[in-house]
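Blinded run. Sample ID left blank on purpose so nobody reads anything into the name before looking at the predicted structure. Input follows.
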Amino acid sequence: MAGTAPRQGLAFIYVTTLFFIWGAVTSVNDVLIPAVKEIFTLTDTQGFLTQFAFFMAYFVVSLPAAAVDQRLGSARSIILALGIMVVGCLLMPVATHVRSYSIVLVALFVIASGITLLQVAANPLSAVLGPPEKSHFRLVLSQAFNSLGTVIGPYLAAHTLLQGGLFDGGAPTEAKIVESLGRIDVAYYFIAAVIVLLAIFLFSVRGRITSAAPNLEGSSGGLARAVGSKWALLGASAIFLYVGAEVSIGSTMVNFLEQPNILGIAAVEAGKLVSLYWLGAMIGRFLGSGLLTVVPAGRLLTLVAGLAALFCLIVSQISGHPAAVIAISIGLFNAIMFPVIFTLTLERSTAPAPATSGLLCMAIVGGALMPLVFAKVADMTASRSTAFLVPMACYILITLFAIAAGRARIVQEADPAVGPH
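Blinded prediction complete.
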């Protein structure tokens, strides 16, 4: 037993690197959108198909990923997931070579499929690699590193994707298009290389991870059981709305900030500021974990969701620097929403925790669908500011969920081993 704690501590560090990686890769999409819009001359709706392709993978792949994880075990599933992500990254140069936006979308779906399997395998590991009484602390810490990845990813991607070529100004030329396409290649070759190095390292320590983790229960619980629970359905709806709102705002941020009536800055500078949106989420997770020790979860969720809705309303009505600051600040209020919705739902659902968790993970597909609604409103009204009414509506509904959850009876204790991503 004396050697168990150090082994689990090292294994936890290894697994937490995965949270950082998938956070960074996911957030690169926010900078990729303005790049492909410029290169392929897309509308907002067409550009947001990148998020549709990416987050649709959660809906399609979640259940198969759970089956793969149950069959292979966590360590081998993680290696497979990283391999799938590399394949997706290497599809990007193929897409740029033939100049096919459709293949870009396929590449993003493949990358997201790998991330889905990664989350299915890594979440329970993060929870069980240590004393049970500290499982919530470990999940919050892992999520903080996930947020760190979402801060660093857009900043580095902006330097690569939103400089040179078509972003140097002037009329678009063949040479500028080729340069901008080449920058996408560079970004995804770099991401692939980092993932390969991480996969090689984790392959070398796979035995340590396996030996450090207790046997994880493989029961799926049956998705039908979750569909039959009112609170599982309500929680899934709240997750759908939350991810949809968060992704919509992050995805539009570059184009929103570079507008003349907001900041009027270059795309590369706007791309760097996207990191502040995700930085707010990282800070909020640290602050929120402390507040949750003294404030009931339902009450805190009501407060942050209500404030997020209010901020979206304000952004829709004003312009200039105040609009930019308030829009970026919404990230702070997003921070605790996913884990708190997850936990509140698990406590109140009458379905088995694994089944409820599976349904909640599938609801992440909101990141595919709600951004398209946001983009459609922006295209129809010719105003990205007005489109902020879409996430405002999402946050209002989440507020109602939080109020209802605060009044509802707790059915079972939440199982941290199937907790938030």
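Unblinding after everyone has recorded impressions. The two ends are 29 Å apart (CA to CA).
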